[in-house]
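User: I'm writing a tutorial on reading structure tokens. Could you give me a worked example: one chain, its sequence, then its tokens, then a sentence or two explaining what the tokens reveal?
Assistant: Sure. Here is the example chain.
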Amino acid sequence: MKKYKLETAIFYSKLTTDKNHLIKSSEVELQGMLDRKTEEGWTLASTDALSYGSAV
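And here are its predicted structure tokens:
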């Protein structure tokens, strides 16, 4: 039986006119997480994204 590990990353948005700012600002951190897990022998099985909407 395969062993799976759940990893959660939450990135909060800011008010901006750039609709891709969250992707740009989180890309380096997410790639670092993936690189560390790969070095530990893990592989990426699934991804998902969710929009929380606006909170003020």
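What the tokens reveal: The radius of gyration is 14 Å. The chain is about 35% helix and 0% strand.
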